Amino acid sequence: MKKRATTLAAVALATTALAAGTLAACGPSEPDPAPRVTSVAPEGEGIAPDAPGISVRFSEPVEPSGVEDGRFLALATEADAKSAATAAASATGIGPGVAVVPARVVLAEGGAAAEVVPEAPLQPLGTYAVVVGTGIRSVSGRAVMDPTGRKRAFATTFRTGPMPDRLPPAARWITPPHGPAPSNLREIRIGFSEAVTGSLSVKGVAGRARTVSPDVLALALDGPLPSGPFAPLLDGVRDVGGNRPPPLPPILAASCRDDRAPEVAVASVRVLPADTAISLAADASEVTRLGVEVAVERLGEGCGSLPDVPGSLVAWGEFVPCPGHDPCGAPTRCPAAVTASGLCPGRRVKVRLLAEDLAGNAAAPGPWMIAVTGSAAARPVVTEVLADAASPQAGGEYVEVANLGSGDADLAGWKLAKRSASGAVSRCTLEPKGGAIPPGGHGLVVGGGWDGRYPLPAGVPLFHCGATSLAGGLADDRAPAIALESPAGAVVSGFGWAAPSLRCTGRSVERILPEGEDATSNFACAGAGPGTPGACNGNTPPASCPRRPY
Question: pTM of the prediction?
Answer without folding.
Answer: 0.73
